[in-house]
Amino acid sequence: MKAIVHTQYGPPDVLQFTEVAKPTPRDNEVLIKVCAASVNPADRYLMRGAPLIRLIPGLRTPKDKRLGVDVAGQVEAVGRNVTQFKPGDEVFGAGRGAFAEYVCAPEDKLALKPANSSFEDAAALPIAAITALQGFRDKGRIQRGHKVLVDGASGGVGTFAVQIAKSFGAEVTAVCSTRNVDIARSLGADHVIDYKREDFTKSGQRYDLIMGANAYHSIFDYRRALSPGGIYVIVGGGLARIFQSLLLAPLLSRIGSKKTCFFIANINQKDLVFLKDLLEAGKVVPVIDRRYPLSDVAEALRYLEEGHAQGKVVITVAQ
Ligand SMILES: NC(=O)c1ccc[n+]([C@@H]2O[C@H](COP(=O)([O-])OP(=O)(O)OC[C@H]3O[C@@H](n4cnc5c(N)ncnc54)[C@H](OP(=O)(O)O)[C@@H]3O)[C@@H](O)[C@H]2O)c1
C-alpha cells in the first residue's frame, strides 16, 4: 500500500510517499481502508522530533516511521477479540499511521461514522474536537450560562470549541483575526473579538472559563481575564508558555479562587460517540479549510505550520 513515512526528523521535506507493507490487525484492532485523515499540530511535532516528544518514537531517529492519527474509513478486517465492528462498517477515530491507504486502530479508539457526515468531516473530528470537549467538560466544568472565551477560535481546536461550548449552553466569546470574524459568528459565537484590534486581556471583561488554544498570552494575562472561581484551560502553545504554565499553574491555583490547568486529550470511544451525536444533531459542523491528496501530506503540514489554518486541514485518501 501507499503511505507517508519518515526515517529522520525534520521539516516536511523529510516525508516520503512510498510503498510499504499493508498492516495486519492485532487481536483488539480493526484494519481500516482509509478514506480520509486529518492533520494536527501533533503530527508536525512527531515529524520534527520536538524536544521531549521524540522520547516516544525514538531519540535520534523515529523508530516508528508512520505518521498521522485522525482517520475515517471503512472496516476491512477485524482482530479476533473485536466485538463491536465488522467488515464494511464506516468508522472514525484514532489510528497510528493514518497517512496511509490502510491503518490499524484499537477498537476502543473508534466509533461508527456519524450517519449524516462525509468521511472528510468525520476525519476532522477526533483529536481537535475531543480536545475541545474534554477541555470544557472535564477540565473547565462548563455550565449552562457560563461566560466562555475561546482564544484561537478559528483553528482546528477553536472552531470545535466555539460550537461545543454553545452546545453546553454557554455564552461564547471567540477571539480571532479580522478575516475570521465571519467564520466565528457563523459557528454561533455570541461575541467576537478581533485580536488585531483589541486585546481582550486588557478590556476589563471577565470570563468564567477561558480556553487558550495556543497560549497566545502569558498565564498572568489569562488569569486576569477570569472571574473569581474561573478556570483557564491551556490547550497548546510554544514550549516556553507550556513550561511556564506547568510550573506556575499549581502554585497560582493555590492563590485565590482562579484555576489553571493543562491537559493532554485522551481519544476514547465514549467521547467519539458523544461527538457523533453532536454532529448528527447538527450542533457541530466541522470547518474544513483545505483538502490534500495522500501524496501531498508534506504540503498539508507546511500549510499547518504557517499557523493560520481556518479550521481543519484534511487528507483525502480514497472515496
Ligand atoms: N493538549 C492537547 O491534547 C492538544 C490537542 C490538540 C491540539 N493541541 C494544541 O492546541 C494548539 C491549537 O491546535 P489547532 O489544531 O487549533 O492549531 P491551528 O489550527 O494550527 O491554529 C491555527 C489558528 O490559530 C489562530 N491564531 C494565530 N495567532 C493567533 C492569535 N494571536 N490569537 C488568536 N488566534 C490566533 C489562527 O487564526 P489567524 O489566521 O486569524 O491568526 C488560526 O486559525 C496547538 O498548539 C496544538 O499543539 C493540544
Distance between the termini: 16 Å
What order do the SSEs take from the amino end to the carboxyl end, as H and E? EEEHEEEEHHEHEHEEHEHEHEHE
The biggest sheet, with number of strands, parallel, antiparallel or mixed sense and barrel status, is: 7 strands, mixed
Helical content stands at 25-40%
Give a count of the beta strands, DSSP E runs of length 2 or more: 15
Low-pLDDT regions: none
- Overall mean pLDDT stands at 95
Strand fraction equals 25-35%
Q: Hetero groups bound? A: NADP nicotinamide-adenine-dinucleotide phosphate
Note the total helix count: 9
| Rg on CA atoms, Å | 19 Å
Note the overall shape.
Answer: globular
Structural class: alpha/beta
Brief digest:
The protein is 28% helix and 27% strand.
Can you characterise this structure?
There is one protein chain. The protein is an alpha/beta fold and 319 residues long. It has 9 helices and 15 strands. The strands form 3 sheets. Strands 3, 4, 5, 6, 7, 14 and 15 form a 7-stranded mixed beta sheet that branches. It is globular and about 55 Å long. Bound molecules: NADP nicotinamide-adenine-dinucleotide phosphate (NAP). NADP nicotinamide-adenine-dinucleotide phosphate binds next to helix 3, helix 4 and strand 9. The site of NADP nicotinamide-adenine-dinucleotide phosphate has 31 residues, from helix 3, helix 4 and strand 9.
